[in-house]
Amino acid sequence: MSPYELLVGLRYTRAKRRNHFISFISIASMIGIAVGVMALIVVLSVMNGFQKELRARILGVASHVQISGVDGRLANWQEVARQASADRDVAAAAPYVSAQGLLANRQNVQGALVRGIVPELEDQVADIGRHMRRGRLSDLRPGEFGMVLGSELAHAVGARVGEKVVLIAPQGQVTPAGILPRIKQFTVVGVFEVGMYEYDAGLALISLEDAEKLYRLGDEVSGVRLKLKDLFDAPEVARRLSRTLAGDLYVTDWTRSHANFFRAVQIEKNVMFIILALIVAVAAFNLVSTLVMAVTDKRADIAILRTLGATPLSIIKIFVVQGSLIGVIGTALGVVGGIAIALNIDVVVPAVERLFSVQFLAKDVYYISELPSDLQLRDVATVALMSLLLSLLATLYPSWRASRVNPAEALRYE
């Protein structure tokens, strides 16, 4: 592009127009692009924040990688944990017993997932100890038959710390009167709340040795849970361990055990991107009407440039510069505004709530009561490039129309 084409294009953009409606449409297009880009960056950042927050809460209870026996029972778990911990990407390992149970307290009965743990090892692979509302995980001592409940589960069975609850194991025992379920009384020693209803309403923790006794596992466990140095390495680590570990074992990772959930969140993010991208597209294609009117307004100038030797390609470049500059300014304003809001969402949202006396995420309804935000450079770059590309595409047809102006016809009545 030669200097005069750039100079004329920029001058057309800055020049005061005889037709003020064209200026209004240009400003409206610029504002529309800025608002669309800003909204897209903010929404993507919030979606990233929700995805990160939910992943942290789920993996605060679930394991990055889980090793279990094919039949649900794992013997010699210490050796399996030792072999797994030797992997360079494994940070910690802990055994567990997982079984179904029925909790009863007075007239309240509730089903639960019972997990037997070693408290000091469990603290290394999960974050439950950091979310204790009452008591501590270390209160689960072997032989004392203590139990830690999720907050919603404790509410459902009406149990408080220090009270007794009855755990009914579905595995029966044969008696002269027939097959009867095994029943054991436990003392509630703690309550946790991780912020995920699935766990808060359905998980009960007991000592590993107590679980082995109750479910008659002997020295066996259900499996070993691993925490990795980088949770995103889980698929690769799981594949590597499945090849290196001795014995008939089943190795799975969090990307498979929660695949549907995280896939749904990613689909929602993609859908929101497409919907909000339409706002940017509509604003960008307003440039078409802006430049068509500009071409009509500048027919005489185009004719004079053509008679002075300007080629049709030069005319195209001039109007591409004019239209693209509107897109560049709108995109830049949108990027700056979007980044500013995304980085200060914790200040902006409360201010809006106070101003309009509303609450977007009520604490008594949602576990996540504040909008999280995770601004990612890749999203910002994608949105900016998309906006610039749409703005450039919107300039092509009007610019081509300008290059087709007949100088003699345009100057006939001048």
Task: Kindly describe this structure.
- The chain has two domains: 3-56 and 261-410, no CATH class; 64-255, no CATH class.
- 54% of the residues lie in helices and 20% in strands.
- It contains 15 helices and ten strands.
- The protein has helices at 3-14, 20-59, 77-85, 119-125, 151-157, 197-200, 208-214, 234-244, 254-257, 259-297, 299-307, 312-343, 345-356, 377-403, 407-410, and strands at 65-69, 90-105, 108-117, 132-134, 146-150, 164-175, 178-192, 203-207, 223-228, 249-253.
- Strand 6 (164-175) and strand 7 form a beta hairpin.
- The chain is elongated.
- The chain starts with a helix and ends with a helix.
Task: State the assembly state of the protein chains.
Answer: single chain
What is the rounded distance between the termini? Answer: 30 Å
The average pLDDT value, as a whole number, equals 80
| Overall radius of gyration | 32 Å
Number of H- or I-type helical stretches: 15
Q: Total domains, how many?
A: 2
Order of helices and strands: HHEHEEHEEHEEHEHEHEHHHHHHH
